[in-house]
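Note to self: keep these together.
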Amino acid sequence: MSNVVSVKRFKQFPQLMWILLFGSFITRGSYYMVWPFLAVMLYEKFALSATHVGLILSSAAVIAVLVSFVGSALSDRIGRHQLMYASGILYIISFSLLAQVSTIAGYALVITLCSIATALWRPLTSALIGDIIDDKATRELAMQSLYFVVNVGCAVGPMLGLWMGLTGEQSSFYITAVAFAFLLALLWWGFHQHSKIEKIEPVIAKVTENNEDTASLATQSQSQPSSKTKVKGKRQAAAGNQIIKVLIADKLLQCLIFANILCMFIYAQMDSSLIQYLTRAKVPDVLELISAMIFTNALVIISTQFLLLKLMANLSLISRIQIGLVLLMCSQIWLAVNPLTLFWGWIGAIVVMSLAETILFPTMNVHIDRLAPDHLRGAYFGAASFYEFGYAIAPLGGGIILDNLGGPWLFFIAAALTLIVMYLYSILDKMPRPDFVELDKLKEQGI
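Structure:
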């Protein structure tokens, strides 16, 4: 029965949602052909220390997070379309430049542009899903589906890049630029079609009302906004000062952001510090090992995501997240004790970490979607992009620990941080929140 319901919900996806899914697949696939090997390129080209590589990546990511918050909140006022086009164009420009730069300063600047584009794109996509799908269950399935296809792209990308001999090649950044150009063309067409449908729907509704031949109902419908109009009205942008006041008053959101900053710091060690650790330790066949880890990560996610979703359907979001955090902690301990030359030991640790990610990441998005009022969805997803501070400081923090304490200590510290995250999630329900009903009333009165 649940399978039938899922199929019905998939059929409820608007055309624009399918474009987002396909576009996410091709862009993530091309992105992961090259981006994970950036730290290796910097080390091999310029012989930079782990701390210096981390400083370049972290500085770019911190700037990107700040831009992302402002951009996502602004999208509630000027629309997702324009900002998505802008971030897509920035992707194309920055990845094209990344294929050509030859100096440390050039890399630092262009990596920053790439990071800004990525940080803008992700929350805008999540907020757009909320805009185009009203039904809560269908919207959550759409977010799970987006996460699924992103990881299919992550699985295909590095292995395809390795097979084509593109791994570690600077010129391969052009592939990502072309993929985003294609996605922008698809989005332009999708937005155009979606706007046509939105214009036709009120006409159909009006014809239906006339056919009912009930004058009183017709009069009532003209004087009162439809449910769809009400939803759109809620989604009108709040004033900037109101957004800041709401976010400051929402202590639950602040606690959640801090917990997830730590969570992202832990997880991001795989993308930056682990790769640096393996490269500098002269692990045999390091590029093949890195590709295999990325492939394993994505393969585990795409093969277990919907199974785990079904198994945990009766658990609360917080319970699911706590289970994911236990697995994340176990993976960090495994990484800390694994012998350098034990290839399958690294793969095993990544399997456990991937199971944790499968539970944690889509659940985080669903959690924010449930917390966010409709008219502040962009602002809340923008605030959630502060999670990326954890991802941003991970290369620098991990690099400092690597240079001073070594790889095992890095992962033991990450395991200890997981315990702090588990505690913060356990106290979330005790955190105060704003009265959104009262805020809506004040907004209607123009206060």
